Amino acid sequence: GTSTVAAYVEPAPGVSLAAIDEHLRHDLPDAPFIVAGRSLLEHELGRLLRRELVGFCLASFVVNLILVLVKFPRLGTAMAILFPQALVIVGCLALMRVSGVGINPVNLIVVPLILGIGVDNCVYVVARYPQGGGAQGALTRGGRAVSIAALTTIAGFGFLAMSHYPALAGMGTLTA
After folding, report:
1. pTM for the complete prediction?
2. Half-sphere exposure of 8 (CA within 13 A, CB side)
């Protein structure tokens, strides 16, 4: 009782698939159909990824704030732990925008990784603060270990930049 017909269409120069869709809907108002193509798919996927990235960012910050507040109940301390990651994420997204690197399903994970690893490192330093010596003492006691751990993480993700798979190489570059 049902059938599906698929037809390949190559739009003329300067004609979009959206225009073809609109024209067909006007000419065939009662016919159910779907117009699909790479440009429409890329547009829809880009819109979905941008929306999900905003959701990931907000959810990640809220959950991290709650987790940090459990250990460090002062809001100022918790914000001091999260603020550097916010700057790095904004810088990373700005760099992506300026360099023309789009958000894709592989590099979408970079933002939560930056936030998680950065918060982890900041928590170690802030946990050393009450032991005396102020910020300099905290950095002296925990800074070297955090720096070495961060450098090994940077190296690990940095090696992904040498991948022959472009999406994975891009994620390695952004994460490092």
Report:
1. 0.71
2. 1
CA pair distance 62, 164, nearest whole angstrom: 36
pLDDT at position 26 is 93
Q: What's residue 164's pLDDT? A: 94
- Lookup result for tokens 């990640």: 60
Q: Is 108 in contact with 53 (CB distance < 8 Å)?
A: yes
Q: What is the mean pLDDT of each run of 10 residues along the chain (176 residues)?
A: 78 87 89 81 84 87 92 91 92 91 84 87 81 76 84 92 90 87
Q: Which residue has the tokens 């301390």?
A: 77
SS3 35: coil
Residue 9 CB partners (closer than 8 Å, separation 6+) = 17, 20, 37
Q: What are the angstrom distances between the C-alpha of 41 and each of 24, 99, 144, 150?
A: 19, 23, 47, 38
Task: Give the Cα separation of 134 and 130 in Å (integer).
Answer: 8
DSSP 102: P
Taking each continuous run of H as one helix and of E as one strand, the counts in the chain are 7, 0
The predicted pLDDT at position 74 comes to 92
* Nearest C-alpha neighbor of 80 from the set 111, 113, 125, 116: 125
What is the per-residue DSSP string for 151-163?
Answer: HHHHHHHHHHTT-
Identify the pLDDT of residue 91.
92
107: tokens are 């590099």
